[in-house]
Design goal:
2 domains, 3 helices, 87% helix
């Protein structure tokens, strides 16, 4: 990376930090209900894909008599998908 590109990224990061701080000063801290709602939404974002992966894996393993191979693979895939979804929610995308 070149130095001007690093300065651009640093400037963007500083600008974003200032905007967030200014928004926090205007809006204040969220209510307890809002915080619990965010926690619930994040939990659901992780749990639902994970459970769907487990259920699909169990069905495939039962159908093809493959032990726990697909259950494990789809559990990991569902968990990874859920974490990505939660991260995107937190980042606001």
């Amino acid at each position: 990376m070149s130095e001007p590109e690093d300065r651009d990224r640093l400037g963007d990061a500083v600008r974003l930090r200032r905007e967030r701080e200014e928004r926090w000063r205007r809006q204040g801290e969220g209510s307890i209900g809002q915080n619990f709602a965010l926690i619930g939404a994040l939990g659901a974002s992780v749990v639902v894909p994970t459970l769907l992966g487990i259920l699909a894996g169990r069905w495939i393993d039962h159908r093809f008599h493959s032990g726990v191979f697909w259950t494990t693979a789809l559990l990991v895939a569902g968990l990874a998908t859920g974490c990505v979804l939660a991260w995107q929610q937190v980042r606001g995308k």
